[in-house]
Design goal:
Layout lengths: L1 H5 L1 H16 L16 E5 L20 E8 L8 E3 L4 E3 L6 E4 L6 E3 L7 E8 L2 H8 L4
Antiparallel strand pairs: 1-7, 2-5, 2-7, 3-4, 3-6
Helix pairs in contact: 2-3
């Protein structure tokens, strides 16, 4: 719902392209969850998941990735989501999800203390899917 509300054009484009791919006779696209918007996911099991500065350059550049923080940590002291180009460190409590264009924004997260646990769950769409559908399934 949030993707559709805050980025309706890209949401519609993504849904259309994924629908086109699903209808293709050679498609084996299946979603990780029955009501998922995203065709792919990654789970980082920790126990102290920290990511260094990076961009997810193989994702759709103008698409949004959903990042969910999980675990038991003091979110005011660590685990912040860092958006480098904006020079922002955002408090990111466990159970919260944020949508960002992860292919074009350099992002990372801050460390947590040694006794805490942090995991992450990311949902995304690879750019290759859209290149394939936009070029006539070739």
């Amino acid at each position: 719902g949030s993707y559709k509300k805050w980025n309706p054009k890209v949401c519609s484009y993504t849904q259309l392209q994924l629908s086109v791919l699903q209808k293709h006779k050679k498609s084996s696209l299946c979603y990780p969850f029955s009501k998922s918007f995203y065709p792919a996911l990654t789970v980082n099991f920790g126990p102290r998941t920290i990511c260094s500065c990076h961009r997810d350059v193989k994702n759709l550049s103008f698409g949004w990735c959903a990042i969910t923080a999980l675990g038991n940590y003091d979110w005011a002291a660590g685990g912040h989501l860092v958006l480098l180009e904006f020079m922002l460190a955002i408090e990111f409590p466990p159970g919260y999800t944020i949508l960002i264009p992860s292919a074009i924004i350099t992002h990372s997260n801050l460390p947590i203390s040694g006794s805490e646990k942090r995991f992450s769950f990311m949902q995304f769409a690879a750019a290759a899917i859209f290149r394939f559908t936009e070029h006539g399934m070739k």
